[in-house]
Amino acid sequence: MPASTDSDGLDVGFHCGFLCFELLASRLGKGEEPEAPRNLPYTECPYVSEDAQANRKLLADAMSAAGFVNYPSEWWHWSYGDAYWGFVSHNPACYTAQEEAAIEAAS
């Protein structure tokens, strides 16, 4: 699967938006109407309970205060030090993606 890159050519992740788009395109391609959003995994989602919204905000406030950045389409997905974090926070990435073969060779 191809990766998305920022203006410096850094990988900023791809899977989140692509899979949502793929599902929507598949439904529309079949002539189906998209369902009303319910219990979506977005960090700020009005379709979850007030308790869930409050818990997501509590998590977001704590994680953001510690310097993490959130993938807004996944409330549980936080990042620190990778290319996405660098892109969002305007900092150089602390580490980059590694090829699986390189990881195996190092172990």
From TrEMBL:
It catalyses: D-alanyl-D-alanine + H2O = 2 D-alanine. PANTHER family: D-ALANYL-D-ALANINE DIPEPTIDASE. Keywords: Cell wall biogenesis/degradation, Dipeptidase, Hydrolase, Metal-binding, Metalloprotease, Protease, Zinc. The lineage of its organism: Bacteria, Bacillati, Actinomycetota, Actinomycetes, Bifidobacteriales. It comes from Bombiscardovia apis. InterPro entries: A_A_dipeptidase, Zn_M74/Hedgehog-like. This is D-alanyl-D-alanine dipeptidase.
